[in-house]
Amino acid sequence: MKWKDWSNILFRERYTLPDCSGVYVIADANDRVWYVGQAANLKGRWAGKSHHRYPQLIRSNRQLCHRIYWKEFPINFLDEQEQHYINLFQPELNGCKVKKY
Prior knowledge:
The chain is α+β, with helices and mostly antiparallel strands. Helix content is 28%, strand content 23%.
């Protein structure tokens, strides 16, 4: 299954993510992958504004129309799957410092 076939929502609708474990991809309208992550609870990870990449993503979302794509994986496979997709896409935000605004 290709990541673009995964379940997805607009970044601004992240509060509707499911309560499940999985790997997620943040991509823009041009399918450029900006960030890959994992969560034991996707909804909990993106609730509110506590995610460490939230400030960077929200600042660029207006121009780039980010979407969150996710695939459910058991917790014991999260590290392996996250690393696979980081290696595959080499997203910019996975390899840079977290900016403070």
